[in-house]
């Protein structure tokens, strides 16, 4: 019985995910996809990337640490709703710590690994 319930729950999740992705594709078809600023990856690890959006080298730096469960474009959705673009206009040198999805790397990372990643990003 438990196996059947788990399989049913998984099937519900899979169907919901297909529907959610289709909704996102439909929104994108109308040109409402996220519109991210150009950036470059300045350093990375197996489970994170450090994005550099630029700015003046002598300007104050701002490190944005995205939530591990969110995509980094949440900080840069559109021209009018972009925290990153706002900070760049204020003269800040913006960098963002992006977490690589857990399904794309091996290992079970915990708080120690996340703290180390943040420390390395700050040092960079």
Category by helix and strand content:
alpha+beta
Outline the low-pLDDT stretches: none
Q: Which sequence of strands runs across the widest sheet?
A: 1-2-4-3
CA radius of gyration is 18 Å
Domains counted in the coordinates: how many?
2
Number of strands: 4
**What proportion strand?**
15-25%
How would the global form be characterised? flat
Distance between the termini: 52 Å
- Please report the number of helical segments: 3
Helix fraction, binned, reads 25-40%
Query: How much is the average pLDDT?
Result: 82
The helix-strand sequence is HEEEHEH
Biggest sheet: strands, sense, closure? 4 strands, mixed
Q: Would you write up a description of this structure?
A:
- The chain contains three helices and four strands; from the N terminus they run H-E-E-E-H-E-H.
- It has 124 residues and is an alpha+beta fold.
- It folds into two domains: 1-33; 34-123, no CATH class.
- Strands 1-2-4-3 form a four-stranded mixed β-sheet, with helices on both faces.
- The mean pLDDT is 82.
Keywords for this entry:
single chain, 124 residues, 2 domains, 3 helices, 4 strands
Summarize the structure.
With 124 residues, the chain is α+β, with helices and mostly antiparallel strands. It contains 3 helices and 4 strands, in the order αβββαβα.
Element layout with pairings:
Layout lengths: L1 H28 L10 E6 L2 E7 L6 E5 L17 H7 L3 E7 L11 H13 L1
């Amino acid at each position: 019985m438990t196996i059947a319930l788990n399989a049913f729950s998984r099937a519900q999740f899979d169907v919901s995910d297909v529907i959610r992705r289709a909704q996102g594709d439909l929104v994108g078809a109308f040109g409402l996809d996220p519109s991210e600023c150009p950036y470059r990856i300045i350093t990375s690890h197996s489970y994170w990337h450090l994005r550099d959006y630029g700015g003046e080298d002598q300007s104050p730096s701002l490190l944005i640490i995205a939530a591990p469960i969110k995509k980094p474009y949440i900080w840069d959705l559109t021209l009018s709703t972009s925290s990153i673009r706002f900070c760049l206009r204020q003269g800040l040198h913006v960098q963002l710590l992006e977490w690589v999805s857990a399904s794309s790397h091996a290992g079970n990372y915990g708080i120690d690994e996340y703290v180390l990643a943040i420390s390395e990003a700050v040092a960079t």
